[in-house]
Amino acid sequence: MTKEYSTAATITALIPAHNEETLIADAVYGLLRQSVVPDHVIVVADNCADGTVSAVEALGESRVSVFETTDNDHKKAGALNQALAVLLPTLDDDDVVLVQDADSILNKDFVENAAAHLDDDRGLGAVGGTFRAVPCPRDASPTARFLVHLQDNEYARYARDVRRLQGKCLVVTGTAAMFRASTLRKISNARIAGTLPSGNGEGGIYDTTVLTEDNELSFAVMTMGLRIAAPKDCLLVTDAMTSWGALWAQRLRWKRGAVENCVQYGFTRVTAPYWGRQALSVAGVIVTAAYIGSLVWSLVVSGAIVILPFWLAVTGIFVLERAITLKDKGLWRRLLAATMYEIPYDLFLQATHARAYLDSIFKTKKVW
Q1: Interhelix angle for 213-223 vs 181-193, to 10°?
Q2: Parallel, antiparallel, or unpaired for β 235-238 and 104-106?
Q3: Domains of the chain
Q4: In angstroms, rounded to a whole number, what is the distance separating the alpha carbons of residues 203 and 209?
Q5: Is 222 left (phi over 0), alpha (psi -120 to 50) or beta?
Q6: Is the pLDDT of residue 367 over 70?
Q7: What does DSSP assign to residue 184?
Q8: How many other C-beta atoms lie within 10 A of the C-beta of residue 70?
């Protein structure tokens, strides 16, 4: 149980927003309704061609302001760098900065809990959260509803894994992450000094040359000797992809970015577990291809699908894993998972992994 957060420090929330007119008010009000309300909420409006800025101004909230980027062509990372370059000099070392995506809404006690964790543990450099998918509206297409359902299952499994590891996580995701000002300053100084990667040579908090700036920033925090965590009491909901095309683009970017962040940092004490996970991911792609290949081969040779005992055992393990790891969703969802209806989704993700590895090897053009 965390102690009450010290109110001596200030909390500033940044919401990067590119054409988020329809979502931005909910994101802002989600912060203003927190049990500990941030002292200042700044919407970082980046190259907005819609009414994002007007929507924020129409809220008429004294704690809320808009920072508009100037000539930014580095997307979210560049927008946040511009805002932080202005903000950080005004903050004390123990002040905290929350960075939250515009399509995310925090549980009412997220800010209080995250700040308390940082206050309790000086070894923590960043606190993130675990999340669920925002439910689809009733009038959404069946495809959209099914995809959101599948992603929500995936997020529930991830949250269970993190909870079982007592908050230890792989990455502090951009959905919501809180940092001490001192940590962000150290990262910026280290980039300028060359002790942390900075592809553009300009320093800044976020590396604007990578596909997954949040994953890279997590590496940076840990390389500075600090830890990252996603405590079980830091919860939120976030939008999920509603089309196969959008999901493919998102996961391809995530996976390729993670691979290239490992290459960027090399094999170190920090990155060793991540290299291990990449090896397991490659093994998973190979095993999946072998499984499908064996089924196709049996169909071609014998005219029928024959599942060998080895693959029957693998299937049994898969069924158990699908059901057990969905405990958070209740008995009905676990029984449904045991039917293996998620296999097409898992194969889809495996395909994005395979493509990401090929893109990284052949250095194809990066697409955000």
Answers
A1: 90
A2: antiparallel
A3: 11-242 (3.90.550.10), 273-362 (no CATH)
A4: 11
A5: alpha
A6: no
A7: H
A8: 7
- Residue 107, sorted as left (phi over 0), alpha (psi -120 to 50) or beta, turns out to be beta
Tokens for 226? 């600090």
Residues 6+ positions from 271 with CB-CB distance below 8 Å: 219, 262, 265
Separation of alpha carbons 43 and 13, rounded Å: 8
152 φ, ψ (degrees, to nearest 5): -65, -40
Q: Collect all residues with Cβ–Cβ distance below 8 Å to 130 and sequence separation of at least 6.
A: 155, 158, 159, 162, 163, 230, 232, 234, 235, 236
As to burial, measured by CB atoms within 10 angstroms (0-12 exposed, 13-18 middle, 19+ buried), residue 50 is: middle
d(CA 149, CA 295): 28
> Within a 13 Å sphere around the CA of 156, how many CA atoms are in the beta-carbon half?
20
Kindly report, residue by residue over 72-114, the tens digit of the pLDDT.
999 999 999 999 999 999 999 999 999 999 999 999 999 999 9
Indicate the pTM of the whole model.
Answer: 0.90
| Poorest-pLDDT segment among 44-48, 143-147, 177-181, 293-297 | 293-297
Q: Supply 330's token pair.
A: 């209740």
Count of Cβ atoms closer than 10 Å to residue 355 Cβ: 16
What is the edge-to-edge ordering of all strands in the sheet holding 104-106?
Answer: 104-106, 235-238, 130-133
Cβ atoms of 13 and 24 within 8 Å: the answer is: no
- Altogether, the residues listed in the chain come to a count of 368
Nearest to 186 by CA among 154, 221, 151, 162: 221
